[in-house]
Design goal:
The protein is of the alpha/beta class. It folds into two domains: 290 residues, UDP-N-acetylmuramoyl-L-alanine:D-glutamate ligase, CATH 3.40.1190; 135 residues, Protein-Tyrosine Phosphatase, Chain A (Alpha-Beta Complex), CATH 3.90.190. Helices cover 42% and strands 17% of the residues. The protein contains 16 helices and 18 strands. The protein has an eight-stranded mixed beta sheet, with helices on both faces. Strand 11 and strand 12 form a beta hairpin. Helix 3 packs across helix 10 and helix 7 packs parallel to helix 8. The chain is globular, with a radius of gyration of 22 Å.
């Protein structure tokens, strides 16, 4: 099989999107399958210096800042983020720029034979007999492709964001002891897979820590910090905690990213690069650090746009921890403003807790929906009528339902000069960004 165009590449990848029973999380078997796939590609992940980032909130921003800081110091840096917002190539960045469509097609063609070999592999087990790995998921294909591309491009460092959790995540396949594990704020999310307590969730995420490696952790609740430190101790890893005093000392006064939580992410990123500088013997340039922080702009995180003379804020907060931080930042940035919220939540998310942060700030709420079939899984939004019923229970009446995202956004723009806030899901943001990009307003 040979792919000729970028559109064909997208269609091929979309054929690997999990549907129905295929969406089941495979756990250990999935990780074994991922390692087999990478062995077919000569294990590129173990030929790279990797910074591996996990957590509940701030992963993407922290990855972006680490990549930016390293690039500013003259290094060639591979950056893998997920999910993407408008273009799958967002997952394959070199120095924070996506690779070309031509390169993307070229590299995908080089790994297709390995992708097609995986489903036929049969594993013999003691208790269950023979088990087939099954085909690779969309996410697994892209993670393997990212490692392959970054190795072929001979990058100096790779910054890679976990997809879900850590222990059984497809990114958790790097065996090198010089891998650096970075842990952002940890809270409740994906409980159906990661566990119902903070300790269980923290353990899943902490398991990206390799034996005798380096782990850097941002300010956490004690019960979370204790779990991470126990895992680090068991793995004989060097544990560094970025506490409140260190965060306050980080030069983030002119940070381009808005929100107190972004100062935490910036401090964590800088500490990571400082440890790399000490280990790999390069010097940190304070002016370059300040320049990176000042010009930092990460799409989908408190992204402010002016559209038809209306201020629009887009933020991908999609769990209670993120929504709490975002709402606090929103109040701080615009203390005397009214907000018209445009919201949708992925099915299964704790939208009730998120609404508790939205309602006190909302002069009006427009509820919409999404159906995404070109990402890691099939993603459905919670039904707007269900969200509406919950708003009624909160005694909030000033809402409307506009099922189509484009229709909802147009309607919000027509309602006046209030600040429009688009939030609740990165998948909703992807829909709105595509709408804005295509000049359909």
């Amino acid at each position: 099989m040979r792919i000729l165009t970028f559109k064909q590449a997208e269609e091929y990848l979309n054929s690997h999107v999990r549907q129905g029973s295929r969406q089941i999380f495979q756990g250990v078997l999935g990780l074994e399958k991922m390692r087999y796939f990478l062995r077919l590609l000569s294990s590129p992940q173990n030929k790279l210096k990797v910074i591996h980032v996990a957590g509940t909130a701030g992963k993407g921003s922290t990855c972006y800042l680490i990549s930016s800081l390293l690039a500013a110091h003259g290094f060639k840096v591979g950056l893998h983020l997920s999910p993407h917002l408008t273009d799958v190539r967002e997952r394959f960045q070199i120095n924070n720029k996506v690779i070309s469509k031509k390169e993307f097609v070229l590299y995908l063609n080089k790994v297709i034979s390995a992708i097609e070999k995986v489903p036929a592999f049969v594993k013999t087990t003691a208790g269950k007999g023979k088990i087939k790995y099954g085909d690779l998921s969309y996410f697994e294909v892209l993670v393997g492709l990212a490692f392959y591309i970054f190795e072929k491009k001979k990058v100096d460092y790779v910054v890679i964001e976990t997809g879900l959790g850590g222990l059984y995540d497809a990114t958790n396949v790097v065996d090198r002891k010089d891998k650096v594990a970075v842990l952002t704020k940890i809270g409740f999310d994906h409980m159906e897979i990661l566990g119902n307590t903070l300790k269980e969730i923290a353990y899943q995420k902490a398991m990206i820590i390799n034996e005798r490696s380096q782990v850097i952790v941002v300010d956490q609740l004690d019960e979370v910090k204790n779990v991470i430190s126990e895992v680090a101790k068991k793995n004989q890893a060097n544990f560094v905690f970025v506490g409140r005093s260190l965060i306050n000392q980080t030069p983030t006064k002119n940070l381009g990213l808005i929100g107190e939580y972004q100062k935490e992410n910036a401090s964590l990123a800088l500490k990571t690069v400082e440890l790399l500088a000490k280990r790999d013997r390069f010097k940190i340039d304070k002016e370059k650090v300040e320049s990176v922080f000042k010009t930092a702009h990460f799409i989908g995180r408190f992204d402010i746009k002016k559209i038809n003379d209306t201020t629009v804020v887009l933020d991908g907060a999609h769990n209670p921890l993120k929504m709490e931080s975002f709402s606090r930042a929103l109040k701080s940035k615009y203390p005397d403003k009214n907000f018209h919220f445009l919201i949708a939540f992925k099915k299964g998310k704790d939208y009730k807790k998120m609404l508790n942060y939205i309602v006190p700030l909302a002069s009006k709420i427009t509820i919409t929906s999404f159906f995404v079939d070109n990402q890691d899984l099939i993603h459905l939004s919670e039904k707007p009528v269900v969200i509406a019923n919950n708003l009624k229970q909160l005694n909030y009446e000033n809402y409307q339902i506009k099922t189509l995202p484009e229709q909802a956004f147009k309607s919000a723009l027509e309602t006046g000069r209030e600040i429009i806030v688009v939030t609740g899901s990165l998948y909703l943001l992807g829909e709105i960004y595509r709408f804005i990009k295509n000049d359909k307003i």
